[in-house]
Amino acid sequence: MDAIRLDATRSHKKLTGEFQEEARPCHFLLLYQERLNVYPLQPLLLTLCATIRTDKERAMAQPISSIIIPLIAILPLIVFWLWMAWDLGGNDNLSSREKFYWMLAFLFMNVFAAVFYYVYEYRKRQ
Questions:
Q1: Which segments of the chain have a pLDDT < 70?
Q2: What is d(CA 52, CA 119) in angstroms, rounded to the nearest whole number?
């Protein structure tokens, strides 16, 4: 009966995060080093266990630059796409059929269509 209670306590602690040591990778080797006779490998195992991170630790260790650098690259493209889409809506030199085709291109080809629109339509009017 005590073994069942002990297992229930361990599983509760694992779920709540209070029992961090058992949740770490390789920790079972350190717990069972007597049975496995890994005493000569203990420095290596300690180093290995210190370098292996859990998924939660790895997610928390991501630098902010992994978010900011893509935003810096993507934000000008979105602004350019919106600028060309706005210009397309106000372009009176195009027929309604041409505007419809350009809108389809903007929806399906995104920034590529905006670049084509800039080269073939926008620069002609300027």
A1: 1-62
A2: 51
